[in-house]
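FIELD: query
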Amino acid sequence: MAGRFAPRPARTATVRGGLSGVPAPGGAGRPAAAAGLRRTWRPEGPLDLGLVLGPLRRGPHDPTVRLTPDGSVWRASRTPAGPGTLRVALRGEVAEAEAWGPGAGWLLEQLPGMLGAFDDPSAFEPRHRLLALTRQRRPGLRLTRTGLVLESLIPSVLEQKVTSLEAYRSWRLLVRRFGEPAPGPVPEPMHVMPDARTWALIPSWEWHRAGVDAKRASTILRAVRVAARLEEAVTMPPAQAQARLEVLPGIGPWTSAETVQRSHGAADAVTVGDLHLPGIVGYALAGDRNADDEAMLSLLEPYAGQRHRAARLILLSGRTPPRRGPRMSVGTIWQHT
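FIELD: result
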């Protein structure tokens, strides 16, 4: 859930401690030899790790993300420098991070952006009481910016035209089978998603075994063949990035918005083409559970430049239309591209 993304250095939070080239101490229950690089960072305002990083988790069993009882979030990513694992936790008002693998330094450099340093929550002016109250209750909401396009594009393609349950299963099976073990002392087995060449070599029967139809598999194969060009889109404003993604057959406004929301922290990239979102927005803002995309965009027009944030707040408000029937069965088509 396009608009202009313009980082404002003057508002960027201050880094405390910076990136240390000295390995961090092992800590309780962790051997010193397994320690990684570390960094601390202090956000300017409230920060809720669950709200900020939640959109990066594709289901409760995502092999690239783990949550631990101490409040840490673990992420395994394929960075421009190679695979890396990041652990981040809030200790008081400070974010403490540690990273392992060839991509460790890159992940720590990106830490402020991933935690919303380039996002500007103050730019949002609520015009509905529901959104004002939700923002007050959720002050730690910031929009993550990962700086990685393919990492968000591929699972978004998998989510086209199927239930979330099916898409999460496909992502889990493919990453576990064709990815590589995440570096570092991960709390339980984790995997880094495959590189572009590995995605391109996955046999047709493996896509089928993972529940991915030929159309979605073909879209991913087209994407990984031009992976470098797609990753370049992270340097573009979100609207231009979406336009580049949508040049590829099989990638439409739904998929491109879902991607730049995560890769760019795009505050205005509202998701269109979704079966549920228009009705949720319509019900929350106008009592219209039958709203379509056109009606949703009209209701969100007062939030131009911040429409994705408005939609996030609506979803967080809990004000959703009551169910009128059973959940969709697995295999039901429910999203556009």
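FIELD: remark
Residues 164-178 form the longest helix (15 residues).
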